[in-house]
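U., I forgot to send this yesterday:
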Amino acid sequence: MRYHMFIIVFLWSSFLRATLYRQVTIVFVEDPRAEYYEIEWLEKDPRQAKTSSHIEKIYRSPVVRKVKANYLYFRMRSVAGKNYSPWTEPYSLASLTEKITYERETQTKDTGKEDQPSQELTAKEGDVMSTPKPEQPTAQDTQHKDFVQNEPKAVNIENFPKEKPNFKDAVKSQTPQEEIKEIESHVVSQNPVNLEQLANERPPYYSINESEIKPYEKPIDITSDGSYNIALYRNQLAESQYRNLRVIMDTTPPQTTVGFYQPVIFDGSQLWISYHSPIELRAEDNLSGVRKIWFRLFASSMPPGDFEEYRGNFTLEQKKLSADELVYIEFYAEDLAQNKEKLNRIVLHADLSAPKIEKVHQNGPRYEIWFQEKNPPVRYVLWKSSGQKIKEGETKKLLLLENAEPGNYLIELKDNFGNSAQEKLTLP
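Result:
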């Protein structure tokens, strides 16, 4: 008798409540050399498309199962030790009364009638198999209202091998596909990459980006920055894959830029900011990602101090800088691969003072009022002590008053950074 996985009698199914499952009964001829059998329930025909499936271990015929309705096909194979027979062709579950059998072609007398299967056939050398007498229904089978007692019609399987195969040569040694967990992400910055350390085990085999499956003998070389998909295998067969690693090689530090929100003045060589100008730090890292930004801010009259973690925009007011002097911002970022950026330094000029009157000069009926301001123009409003507005506008440094009446005045001054002040003015 040749060793081959075969299904002999029939298949029927009926939908259960809410069509979530179908009842399936499969009767097959057991092989005495098989330790058990595997049946694979398939959502699609694997000859036509990739499909999800579920493999189940069984030990005897018949197979009676409630199968999820999304499984439309099945196939079987037998197992002896580490040897697996080839899968049968996939069979459809769509037909509720489909009958399947593998038989040798029967011989009948020339009676002019259609051939009928003989009740008994004797196995001969070279036969694929013999057809047994129809099996009687078991107690379990007869409880099913759709049980079919008629013997299925014989069909000829022409593609069975002519020669008698050797058992060891006929089976295919393979490992069933294992369920692979979600992709495990790892970030590294040192080459070579120690997979044993990343996976917390020594993988037998591996492949990088779906390349050749190789035995893992030592840490692997990854010389270029980038993302790599590394699959781990139990042997050199693709079906033995059991883990999937995503390894990001990142040897490039992040880059940080500094930004300033209004009010800001840049005169071509110097950058001026106010007491309330928001300062923002932005770091970019295209591989592993930015972990943290560190910075410190200090004036020329104070020691640098410690670095602190950047958590959002800040101002000179928040950092308690109140003098018109040079301000230094030093900063750097680090990424998830522990690459650190070189220290950056920005020099600023802080304008925290309001404009003020520097001097007043009288020339006959005309008065010249000079202002002191680092970043002109100066906006002004001149009031008489009685509350009457005399004049308003803006100027770089000089305000001219023609034919102004002597007396007491109040002048409001404001610069581009919002620094403002009020001063009393007496015109002689």
